[in-house]
């Protein structure tokens, strides 16, 4: 197992991690959290070399993807950088990339009742006004779980707050900061239930944020 104690805060600068081979030739990954070698709860940054593909595979408890670079594809379509995808529990597909791509992939983390298929091109979706100078782009919600992009203008400071059900962040551009450190592009941060911080930025920054989805009382070794 890797980073499966959800009571611990985890910070990974993925740009400093090496690419590790996957079972498919030309497909590489940087693991963030993993329950088992090739199954169960898994989060990774994955790179497809141009022309590479992955065998048809099922998603017993769903798959969530954000395309970070290039164009990701499967038998249902092509998804350029900025595409946010949710494949519900019980779905399957055969992904590939003709030109190459980098994606965030989260496997087997859905509530079994969360059956929505979601396909959003965030490059063509309107930002909504958030608190203060923040702009927000909601992507998905189910009960306590909320997923969104948040755009921070230069010099923005947010109020100190706590995270019921935890918080997970991937920095997409700029540099995110709080009292515990600085987090450059493609840094992944997972903070446990009822953790808190005082975030701010010095330059325009965009982050992917998930809240309310981590275990509240179950702690795995």
TrEMBL record:
ChrR-like cupin domain boundaries: 8-110, 120-214
Superkingdom field: Bacteria
SUPFAM superfamilies: RmlC-like cupins (SSF51182)
Name used for this protein in its record: Cupin domain-containing protein
